[in-house]
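Shipment paperwork, digital attachment
Item: protein structure file
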Amino acid sequence: MSLRLSTVILPYRRWNEGGRSAWQRAEDLGFHTAYTYDHLSWRSFRDGPWFGALPTLTAAACATERMRLGTLVTSPNFRHPVALAKELISLDDISGGRVTLGVGAGGTGFDATALGQDPWTPRERADRLAEFVPLLDRLLTEDSVSCEGDFYSAHEARNIPGCVQRPRLPFAVAATGPRGLGLAARYGQAWVTTGDPRLYESGTPEQSVRALRGQVEKLGDAGAAMGRDVTGMDKILLTGFTPDRGRPLESLDSFVDFAGRHQELGFTEIVIHWPIPDSDFAADEKVFEQIALEAPARLG
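Attachment content:
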């Protein structure tokens, strides 16, 4: 399967001060999908400008024509499936069916406490995701949904006319643990990973590749357990969080080598961060654009 190249554009710029132009340039460069993070605030950007993911994607849908758009990733930390579903069918309609929902369990960052709650434990996050994804699936495929859950409920929630994409817009489920991988295998049209976070500080690229190979194998096991062959399922690697860090964006050859090693593991899509000066995502914009324009052809 050929390797697709996508980007993630963080929503830290005003739309009329570089926001719009970045999304339009991403389409001009031929990226398969441009994603954005769905956070209320994030890491070192917390005390600076940061805009909402779904309004940003709506504006991007109106400013582009061909490129797919999506979240990496939406989580239950501050979202409810009923309200989210309504926004997603609206975004899918406005974009002409170009939206992918990245969805995951969330973490312990600022989103986890912004609504005044205590941070959830890993088990609590997994419990909530296990309700969040199936309910969202129903809300996006059925005209009217009623259900009573431990965490999320719906009462005659209507989403007519539903998604442009049928039976619904695709889910890209971010997961590394057994329960999340099970959700990815059951409900996902794609699976997302950032690698093994335990290796980021002191691991090696070789260790990261082995860890990712293990994750791919576990996804296969999760699919087999429910009778699904996930061989042809899209597998997305969000870069920047493995021990390689920013080295793949130092040159075209470096990126092709990095992407090729991960393509051999079965990954079908590599996501690189749009360069942000003076941040963890700083990169030479000319090299970034060269990678966007030339790497896909070299990777086949």
